[in-house]
Design goal:
The protein is α/β, with parallel strands linked by helices. It contains 7 helices and 12 strands. The structure holds NADP nicotinamide-adenine-dinucleotide phosphate. NADP nicotinamide-adenine-dinucleotide phosphate binds near residues 8, 51, 71, 75 and 78.
Amino acid sequence: MRVLLLGGTTEASALARALESAGIETVFSYAGRTNAPIAQPVETRVGGFGGMEGLIDYLRTAHITHVVDATHPFAAQMSRNAHDACTATGLPLVRLERPAWEAQNGDDWLHVPDIESVCDALPYIPSRVFLAIGRMHVDLLLRQPQHHYLLRLVDEPTDPIALPKHSVVVARGPFDVAGDTSLLRKHRIDCIVAKNAGGAGAAAKITAARQLGLTVIMIDRPTLPRAKTAADSQSVLRWLGHNAERGV
Ligand code: NAP
């Protein structure tokens, strides 16, 4: 057995540890979006495969027998490629999926279907907006240059940020509610833009927004092809046929 674990999430790192402890040969794959990705206890590769065809080649040459898609819920292209490549090669695929966040009492969420729709949901009057969406799609906000944007990024940006009014904080999660509340207060934030990532590591800003009575423009998750899903590392181990008690 040789598992390809498509990573990038906290849950993927936890699964890598579980697979290593179980003695299951694993290749962990990072997209390469951050300068210093978290070191994994298993063989690691970094960078795209070259689309679905490239992934099919990789699966064959690396003698992969099982694929676990534990990518970020918004990494939809990778999930689609994994689905299509596994269908084409007949390899078994499971998606490690964390539940989406759901609005609770006191939340003021404005749902948008994708990142492209965020601009239309922003207020017209100049506001202070916390952009918790990473670096990749920031230029889409250029249509609303009147706002001051606070960007939280994993790495110091190497290229200039085109938004005329912005500030940057460089920080890597997991974040906590006290820290996020103080960040939102310090920057006098009026509204937050967030992807519905789910999970605990990035949820603090949502709780902080609720407590401070701020609007969250919540980007709904992309739709992914149907696949078998697992909720946690133990379910993936069971799917792989590993019996934790017998150690097989
Ligand atoms: P994507 O749009 O699904 O993927 C684009 C391409 O990146 C894929 O087609 C693949 O390239 C490569 N790729 C993605 N994940 C990979 C992996 N684990 N191993 C190897 N190659 C991988 O995903 P994205 O561009 O990374 O991000 C899309 C959204 O997800 C963004 O909104 C981003 O902020 C969010 N996000 C992603 C990550 C992450 O770790 N990827 C983490 C946090 C947030 P090839 O076609 O060449 O194979």
